[in-house]
Model the fold of this input.
Amino acid sequence: MQPAASTFSDDDLHALVNAHARREGPLLPMLHDIQDRFGHIPETAHEPICNALNISRAELHGVISFYHDFRKAPAGRHVLKVCRAESCQSVGANAVADAVLARLGLEWHGTTANGAVTIEPVYCLGLCACAPAAMMDDRVIGRVDAAKLDRILAEAGA
Amino acid sequence: MRIFLPMDSAAKSLGAEEVAAALRAAAPEAEIVRTGTRGMIWLEPLVEIEMDGVRHGFGPATPDDVAAILDGTSTKALGPVEDLDWMRRQSRLTFARVGVIDPLSLTDYQAHGGLAGLRRALGMSGQAIVDEVKTSGLRGRGGAGFPTGIKWQTVHDADAPRKYIVCNADEGDSGTFADRMLMEGDPFTLIEGMAIAGIGVGATQGYVYLRSEYPDAIAVMTRAVEIARAAGLLGADVLGSGKAFDMEIRKGAGAYVCGEETSLLNSLEGKRGVVRAKPPLPALEGFLGRPTVVNNVISLATVPVIFEKGAQHYAEFGLGRSRGTVTLQIAGNVARGGMFETAFGITLGEVVNDLGGGTRSGRPVKAVQVGGPLGAYMPVTKFDTPLGYEEFDAAGGLIGHAGLTVFDDTTDMLGMARFAMEFCAVESCGKCTPCRIGAVRGVETIDRIAEGDPAALPLLADLCETMQDGSLCALGGFTPFPVMSAVTQFPDDFARQKEAAE
Ligand SMILES: Cc1cc2nc3c(=O)[nH]c(=O)nc-3n(C[C@H](O)[C@H](O)[C@H](O)COP(=O)(O)O)c2cc1C
Ligand code: SF4
Ligand code: FES
Done:
């Protein structure tokens, strides 16, 4: 489940930032915590982070944009990741992905109109011996086919 | 009654939680022990029931099978698990406990040999610890196969107020899952290995950089570190020795290149995960500029058994300069996929046909990609190549992290070559032009080949040469392996497209 991004206070934000500020290499744990809490890295978080770590806004932006995980805007309520890597391709992952994208009428990284599900590509989930693989939020799914994903998407409200 | 059922994420992905719920409902009085996986992924979820002290397997199990499994009439009965061919043929050293014990029970861990290695190491000097690793012949299992003892020696000899052990748990290669399986199935082994490394080289702090795509492994490792700290295995006074070592789990953020060790260190420091030029070696100037051992999960998790059984015992396994065991990960279009730990020297054909049972689709094998997205596509004609670092190198391939992805004869190798370039373009850290721009050009060039442009093939070969020569790290430098192996081993797939367009 992606947490609601609607309400958060400056106090929450500062608490999250301060919790990590004295660790070695604090930025990634900080960004992960902020995203876990708010569903994305809100603009309002930039200044407190930069102040706490004594880095420039440009540096922070560079880091956030480098990593696939960090979002500038909230995702849907659920995130479905479908593996596109070689082992999954060897057992039909491309066809599965095409079918799911077509069913949802989305491109990769798109979100359903009702905000239920965002669909993203992923490159290997370590489930290569029971491929093709996917992951709905933190729930792993092996040997997926279009029917299995349909069921899971329906459960998620897509 | 004692029942064992994996909580490994491969087992979960195939319905282990549903089977667990059915077992709890049908046999509320039974003790259900959650374990790692034995590695026979085609049999997951694999239920094991203890009868007269022997564990009998049933799988692949569904909730509907539970009643019959419990009353002894199941058609999915496999007999004693340890007697299965797949298990008997292995030499499980690193993975001895995985699938056997409760991963989060330190009592189980010690009852199965855990901590014997660390206790022995605590009685040795740092130099003696490093020498033991050298004698074992252990080479890095993350890809490059660099001798682990030599790396440790450099860090040991470096004079610095603070040193680090960093475990590379970024496991981004398609076809690999041994790190995940180890961390979910026997996390204390990795902790013990890192502690031995720390005591050996004089490092007091460790980090595990664990990819965010592995939420289950992150949860198990995090809990295991807490348990280890509470038990005095980690902290200011490791097992009462007066020596300090502690560690933390750090989550990656979805960048493949962060598996490259210098990119990983930048990421751990909170920077963009761009690759650093070497020298300086991370062993001298690593995390925060301090001497740092960076080792793969399997390299570090193999250290405890080396100290428990002795370096010589470990070195007796293997082939040529590849000592010890290799943890093969058999994946993709294969009938029996999973993890198989064996001495180096087994041939590729034995692994794919004999162990793997050929393709899952039942069609002929076309190619096997060994070593992840930067590894070559090996045709069936190379199936007599023995698994060994030098042997694979001579055959134009690499072992890498020892993942094998099997493809059947319906595979379009031009498509796979294109994907290799596309992946490199998506994941490039952007530091060097041949990789950043070259990979994009590579995709375009392969598209031209697909459209029947005969001039594009030599262009692709040129481009690959440029990438190979002009890239700082193996992402740009080795992407030509899958691409050019596809071109040279499967020329029809590149020519046929041409004819189709004429
Ligand atoms: C693009 C790229 C990705 C890599 N990914 C990993 C990885 O996921 N895990 C790993 O252990 N090593 C990976 N490596 C190899 C590391 O750079 C390094 O050699 C390794 O962590 C050293 O540990 P070892 O000596 O125990 O193998 C990668 C290298 C490159 C160039
Ligand atoms: S080869 Fe690619 S990934 Fe490696 S350093 Fe150069 S640009 Fe970065
Ligand atoms: S390649 Fe898809 S899970 Fe590994």
